[in-house]
Automatic annotation (TrEMBL), chain A:
It comes from Actinoplanes lutulentus. GO terms for cellular component: cytosol. GO terms for biological process: phenylacetate catabolic process. SUPFAM superfamilies: Ferritin-like (SSF47240). This is Ring-1,2-phenylacetyl-CoA epoxidase subunit PaaC.
TrEMBL record, chain B:
This is Ring-1,2-phenylacetyl-CoA epoxidase subunit PaaB. It comes from the Bacteria. Pfam families: PaaB. NCBIfam families: PA_CoA_Oxy2. The lineage of its organism: Bacteria, Bacillati, Actinomycetota, Actinomycetes, Micromonosporales. It comes from Actinoplanes lutulentus.
Amino acid sequence: MAFDDAYSALTDHDDDARWAYGTGFSDPLASVPSSVPADVDGADLSLYCLMLGDDALILSHRLQEWVTRAPELEDELALANIALDLLGQARLLLSRAGVASGASSLAAVEDVLAFGRDAAEFRNVRLAERSDADFACLVGRLLVMVTWRLAAFDRLASSRDPMLAAIAAKGVKELTYHRDYAAQWVVRLGDGTALSHSRMAAAMAELLPLTGELFATHPVEARLAVAGVAVEPVSLRAEFDGVMAQVLEAATLDPVLPGPPVAASGEGAGRDGVHGPELDEILREMQSVARAVPGGVW
Amino acid sequence: MTRHEWPLFEVFVRAKRGLNHVHVGSLRAADHEMALHHARDLYTRRNEGVSIWVVRSDQVAASDPAEKPSFFEPSADKVYRHPTHYTIPSTVPHI
C-alpha cells in the first residue's frame, strides 16, 4: 500500500543524514562532451570564451575589492557570493578557451590564462575593469554588466557548442539573482533620500554612455554567430534597453541612452585588447602571487 | 551624521530534507524584501535551503525568563508523556 509509510513521501531516500549542512551538490557539466564541433573554428571559439571569461574574471576582482569595505556586513557577503559566482563562470570559460585553442596541458590552463597574460591579451570590455567611486557606482555597474550578460547567456544556452551552452545554462540562474540584487539596490538608492538619489543619478549618468562597447560586434562574434555558436551583441540591445528602462523608471532616474560603440568613437575596444591603466592595476594585484611563485600550491 | 541601524530580523530556513522551517540566525536589513535577499546570501550558501522565512525580531513574542519555573518545570516529572512508554510498531520510522 502506498501510504504504509507517510514519511517516505516527504523525505528523499538516501543515507545522507547531513541535511542541516546542505546536500545534493552536483556538477551540471560532468556529462557534457568537451570536444569542439567539427565545423567550428577553434581559434575563434577560444577567443570568444576569453571575452566572456575575462568579463567575469575582471568584474569578479573588482567586486572582491569591496570585501572588508562594504557598507554592511550582509552586503559584503552578498557581493562576495556574486564575485564567486562570476569567478566560477570565468574558470569554466577560460578552461573552454584552453580546450578550443588546443592547449596541451589542460590541468593548469585556466591558471595560465588568468595569471600569465598581460593586459593587452585580456579581452574584457572596459566597463568590467572600471573602478567604483562609491556603492552607487558599484551597483549601477553591476546592473549594467549582468543585465547584458544575462541576455547573452539566455541565448547562448542554445549555442551549438555543447560546453558553452551548458556553461551559459548554469550561469543564467546565477545572473538572474545578480541582476535582481543590483536592480533592488539601484531602485532603493534612486527612490531613496535626496542624497542617495543624487549619487545614484550621478553614477548612472556616468555609466550608461559607456555601455556602447557592449553592443559593438567583434569580427569573432560575427563569424561565430553565423555558425550558431555565439550571439551578436547588437541583438541583446532591445532586452538590455527594456530592463534598464524598467529599473530606471522604478528608481525615479532619468533614462540615459547607451553611447555609440567604442570602436566607432575611436578609443579602441577592450575586446581587441585595448585597455586603460585600471586593468594594469588589477592585474598587478591579481597576478602578483602566481607570478612570484609560479605553479605554487598550498 | 548619525548612523541609523537597520532593524534585526530572525531567519528560518527549510532544508530539503527538513519538514519544517528551522531558526538559523538573525541579520539586519532595511525591510522584508532586503531581509530575504540577505538571508539567501548569508544562510543558504552551502545548498542548505529550499525555502526561507524572515520575521522582524521585535515582532516575536517571547516567553518571560522570570516565568520559567511556572512555564516549564511542571512538565519535568511527567515522564509518562514520553512515547518511550509505549510499544512502537516497527513500521513507524523517524521516532
